[in-house]
Amino acid sequence: MNKGARIALTLFVILVCTGMLTPTFWYYVVVPRDIKIMASSTNEEIRSYTQSYASNRVSELTAKALSNGSEKISGGDKYLISDAKRSLSERRLSTPDKWTYYSLLSSFANEGELFSAVENHTRKRIQNTKTLSNFILNLGLDLRGGMSVLLEADVDGYEEKTGERPSQSELSALLNEDIQILNSRIDQYGVTEPQIRQEGGDRILIEIPGEADSERVNSFIRSRGSLTFQLVDQELTNRVNRLYSTNPSQLIAPDGSIIPQSYIPEGMSLMGYYLNDAYGLEYLDSFAVLYDEVAIDGSHLRRAETSRDQQTNRPVVNFSFDTEGGSIFREFTSRNVGRPLAVVMDGKVKSIATINSVISQDVQLTGGFTEEEAESLAVTLKTSSLPIDLKVVSLESVGASLGDDAIKMALYALLLGIFLVLAFMIIYYGPSGIVADIALLMNLYIMLSLLSVLNFTLTLASIAGIVLTLGMAIDSNVIIYERMKEEIRGGAIGYMAVKAGFKRVFWTIMDSNVTTIIAAVVLSIFGSSTVKGFANTLAIGIAASLFTSLFVTHLIYDMTISEEKMNRVRLSWRRKAL
User: What count of Cα atoms within 13 Å lies in the side-chain half-sphere of residue 38?
Assistant: First the structure.
């Protein structure tokens, strides 16, 4: 590879690493603290915050428009201009020549429209920050504090329930489904930002940073939702919803509960039909009158997933029952073809679909769902119970004060380690030490970029891995420089000493680092979570050091020392260059 190609490759790596590290920089440096706090909150807390913020902001904007309406829109409020233009366009009105606070507020049809614009902008900002947090370096429990829960699959209970003992691959698949369900329960129980992953062959580790209530965590893990399928009385349902549209106070009490209606006969119940809002939270959309008789319950449910109808290409929800459930459902649907059936979760109607034909084990729900509605219903079905039950093996808490102290000590250790290594190389190797330090800093930059894009959780053990990696990375440069000294003592000068030095240490450095990577991979596969953090950091750092020591350092020498000019190599601060 010629010099130009190597320069281009190095610049490309720097550019890619910058892109990978940008989310972490943006999250920790640019994003305001209150937005970061809300991004790690539950959806209910986010909704409460955005609505409160929007209400206060609308009042402030109204006051500003009345007191100084001719003032131009400031940077923080310019996002409202696009919403104002959209509102004017929908009402076929012209946009003002100059955007002031008075003209801005006058462009909205009413205060509610302005409130929605502010609320939606704030909500999207928080949700984008939450998405951004999936591509940053996280702080582990030992740095931030929180709770660690280790769960074990109840294989014996699964065998007793199904009559079959799962193989290792089947157990792994069941645990993956459990992880998805546990993630979907997070906001319902107020537990946010957990790291949930499989640990070994039959365990799940949940790490919840920050303060966590152990009772709420236990309910979040052990919860078993009530899922039923019940017939709908369409005539009474229409009657109730007509009343709801004209006089909702007759159906909803001041405390939010549903008021029973005297005309609903015995053997039937009035339930709310709930949908999800923009925050992913439930809201009462309408009502349904259901027969109390349960057609089948969720204990027979085996799987649920979304797909698309082959004819209409619309989202549908597919789910299946076990053998016993299939027999029950086939007999039930054969008697009720053409009637609406409701999916009820914890006393709330989640979906209503018509029984078009006799159905056995495999069921497909079609109802003009959007992608979000279909996915939400599939999650509702899946989260009624875990595919394989879990037992709590251990539940440990890490105090927040310990996390604060650990952060400071870890940062001091990392910075001190880097400073000492950089200083040693400059003092001992002079100008060549500066070259090694540039490569070392690039090594650190590549490491942090890769860890960031992998959404790595930074712990004390992984910080130790970073410090150790930097020491091993600089060791490669020491080997190269000492070999160059030997070449110079043998009569080689300048370019020839550099060329021979890199060539003769290549396989020595490669062999030692590859064996270390192999050891790190083995530790990552078979070690505990703490050991894995150290091993993963070490493996990534060693791979990065191979690139920087053998490629970047060599490139810098090639750019500064040419064969034609016979430049000498400075491997110390002595006046006489080697």
Answer: 24
Q: How do the domains of the chain map onto residue ranges? A: 31-135, 146-224+389-393, 227-382, 399-560
Residue 283 to residues 276, 279, 376, 392: CA-CA distances in angstroms? 6, 10, 13, 33
**Distance of alpha carbon 297 from alpha carbon 362, whole angstroms:** 15
Dist. CA 237–CA 359, nearest whole Å: 24
Q: pTM for the full model?
A: 0.66
3-state secondary structure of 511: helix
Write out pLDDT tens, residues 53-73: 999 999 999 998 888 888 888
Give the count of beta carbons closer than 10 Å to the beta carbon of residue 167. Answer: 9
Quickly count helices (H) and strands (E) in the chain.
19, 14
User: Could you say which of 3.40.50.300, 1.20.1640.10, 1.10.10.60, 3.40.30.10 is the CATH number of the domain covering 399-560?
Assistant: 1.20.1640.10
The sign one gets for the Cα dihedral 20, 22, 23, 29 is: positive
Cα–Cα dist 447/439, whole Å: 12
Does residue 1 carry a pLDDT above 90?
no
CATH class of the region 227-382: alpha beta
* CATH class, range 146-224+389-393: alpha beta
Q: What tokens appear for 56 in the block?
A: 């206060």
Q: What is the DSSP string of 223-278?
A: ----EEEEEE-HHHHHHHHHHHHH-GGGTB-TTSPBPP-TTSPTTEEEEEEEEE-T
The pLDDT score that the predictor gives to residue 476 is: 85
With residue 524 as reference, give the H or E element that holds it: helix 494-526
Is 209:458 a contact under the CB 8 Å cutoff? no
Q: Are strands 138-139 and 457-458 parallel, antiparallel or unpaired?
A: parallel
Whole-number Å distance between alpha carbons of 446 and 516: 18
Burial tier of 367 (Cβ tally within 10 Å: 0-12, 13-18, 19+): middle
Transcribe 81-124 into DSSP letters: HHHHHHHHHHTT-PPPSS-BHHHHHHHSSSHHHHHHHHHHHHHH
